[in-house]
Automatic annotation (TrEMBL):
One of its GO terms (molecular function) is phosphorelay sensor kinase activity. This is histidine kinase. It comes from Streptomyces griseoloalbus. InterPro entries: HATPase_C_sf, HATPase_dom, His_kinase_dom, Sig_transdc_His_kin-like_C. Gene3D superfamilies: Histidine kinase-like ATPase, C-terminal domain. Keywords: Kinase, Phosphoprotein, Transferase, Two-component regulatory system. SMART domains: HATPase_c (SM00387).
Amino acid sequence: MLDNLLTNAAVHTPAGTRVSVEVTVAGDAALVRVADAGPGVPAEDRERVFDRFHRVDKARSRDRGGSGLGLAVARSLVRAHGGGIALSSEPGSTVFTVRLPLDGGPAPEHPGC
């Protein structure tokens, strides 16, 4: 999951763009935030970024990387562990927030996750 989120940031931001990872504990869940200072995800794509085969950059072909599965796989892995994943984005900032229960059970509700 983390590899997919970091790869996504590396592929969709210009070289030299700052990417950060933050891990915190909130109640009985771990929060993992992967943030970048890239161009952001267009509003029309935000609801579909976790859909299989959806690619924000339509100009990229599969032979140049990007099958549109990375974020769908990340979401599946997070859900398999009882968690949730959310996206917030605007120009200059994209943040993926993953919420995972610390006890292995379902994570408490978190807006967007």
